[in-house]
Amino acid sequence: MNVRKAVITAAGRGARLYPAASTVQKAMLPVADLDGVVKPVIQLIAGEAIAAGAEDICIVCAPGDPEEYPAQLRRLRENLLAAHGGSEWAERQADQIEDLIRRLHFTVQEEPRGYGHAVYCARDFTAGEPFLLLLEDHVYISSHPDARCARQITSLAQAEECSVSGVQVTRESLIRNFGTLAGRRVEEMPGVYQVEHILEKPSITTAELELVTPGLRTGHYLCFFGIHVLTPGVFEILEERLRDGSECLLTPALDELARREKYLALEVQGSRYDIGQKLGLMRAQLALALAGRDADEALASVVELLIESRRRDGTGSEAAL
């Protein structure tokens, strides 16, 4: 199976990033990428999808945003060329923005009925094909020598012809923040699990009872990484759950998907950074800087900040570090 389409859910207004996200979409906040160029977050996420083979990208957004995204991206491109036209890096960046605009499609989530409903809004766009699903407020950095995070997942999905969710082994004190699953290891496929049961943000007690995966260290669980490849079967389940008019979550639908068809999880070689969390944008930017072209400069800056902090606190000198 080929994964040619990607869906990015971006209908939330980012209450945790108030007041910035009340005036601009979370996905348009700027960060310096691995190449040192400052870009809107949506460009990093879309780049993840494009590197995984996606040809078309659908953004599920709030009312009014289908006009805002292209307009902001075009202004960004025009301003870039006006200020730095003729520079090789600026021309290359402008071409990337133009390519992104050509790939983008939009669908509106008219009312906030849950993450599952947001995904369901992209049903017509996917047109019966499997699709790559990403979040608009997660930045990913791969530690794989040859593949970015989304590519790792799409490669497995295409090889096994089934849904695949990226996961990360997570200690129990953090599982309240993530969809968490139990599975069994697939023989001769390191880091791959057959999904058996999934719960949304479980308590530690519930996880101990229902979500233990053999082979993991005690107190550790498989939590969603924020990237999925899903088959069209998920839309049938979501449609069933939307009929009663209540909030529709994605995680229970994925739990049902695991009972109906082959569904794997892959331990992704990489890290995820949620820019919507408190200090999340700072952590994501720091991680990108330390992993990118400007790593030496970023590391020197971190050391300088730590020294300055120690001096202000009166806790010691440079030697104390």
Textual characterization of the structure:
The protein is built from twelve helices and 13 strands. A hairpin with a 5-residue loop joins strand 2 (about 30) and strand 3. The protein has helices spanning about 20-25, 40-50, 65-85, 90-105, 115-120, 125, 150-160, 205-210, 235-240, 250-260, 280-290, 295-315; strands at about 5-10, 30, 40, 55-60, 105-110, 130-135, 140, 165-170, 180-185, 190-200, 220-230, 265, 270-275. It starts with a strand and ends in an 8-residue tail after the last helix. It has a five-stranded mixed β-barrel. Strands 2-3 form a two-stranded antiparallel sheet. The chain folds into two domains: about 5-280, Spore Coat Polysaccharide Biosynthesis Protein SpsA, Chain A (Alpha-Beta Complex); about 280-320, no CATH class. The chain is α/β, with parallel strands linked by helices.
